Amino acid sequence: MTALTIYRKLVERGASPVLTLYGSAAGAPRLELSGRVVANHAAKAANLLAGDLMIEPGAPLRLDLPTHWRLLTWGLGGLLAGAELSSEGDTVVTTDPEADGDDVIVVALGALDMSWPGELPAGVIDGNAEVLGQADILLDESLAAPVLPRPIDGAPGRLLVVDPNPMELLDAFVAAVATGSTLVVSDAASAAKAMQAESARPLVFAG
Question: What HEC string does 156-186 produce?
Fold first, then answer.
């Protein structure tokens, strides 16, 4: 399976929710994103990385983002552009405008942030603003990197993860989309509320 399969599953979900977030991961008290919205954001990120920055297939993309929905859209976007997600690399997506890298893409995490709130050093890319001008659909479907979703115990449904680290969040989201589930993400303070309000069960990987 490649990231293109995950992207197409998101597109097929259309207006149906694929991701519901509470607390810090949302940048708001509660945020729900549809398959189409996540697919559009991921496609925009992929088009920027592959088209404008011409990241090489297999090149490392350093994701220096916290547990947040923008981590998922940039992570999936990187995979759709053919990049390998890594803790190292000269292309970095980050919240730190002073980060080291040949291509530094800085991202503001507010739910409605359409640009970085302030001045950026010369050469640093405003990730929020630059993706707005990109196409909403994936322009090159040939680049997508492989993904290997982990199997999930139980039937598809609304699946809750609490305080995942960034890589755990990526793994959980890919697995949820692959099975047709909706991922509910919460911090510990909002976990009980999220589970009750969303009628969610804890995500448990098989094996």
Answer: CCEEEEECCCHHHHHHHHHHHHHCCCEEEEE
Q: Which residues contact 102 (CB under 8 A, 6 or more apart)?
A: 90, 91
pLDDT digits (tens, 9 = 90+) for 6-33: 999 999 999 999 999 998 777 778 999 9
- Residue 127's nearest CA partner among 82, 63, 185 is 63
- What length is written for the chain? 207
pLDDT for the residue numbered 28: 76
Q: Are 61 and 85 in contact (CB under 8 A)?
A: yes
Integer-rounded Cα Rg, in Å, for the chain is: 16
Residue identified by tokens 């989309």 is 177
Q: Phi and psi for 176 in degrees, rounded to 5? A: -65, -45
Query: What is the Cα–Cα distance from 204 to 189, expressed in whole angstroms?
Result: 20
**173 vs 76: CA distance, rounded Å:** 10
**Dist. CA 191–CA 159, nearest whole Å:** 12
Task: Please provide the average confidence, as pLDDT, over all residues in the chain.
Answer: 95
pLDDT (tens digit per residue) in 79-99: 999 999 998 999 999 999 999
Q: CB-based burial of residue 112 (10 Å sphere; 0-12 exposed, 13-18 middle, 19+ buried)?
A: exposed
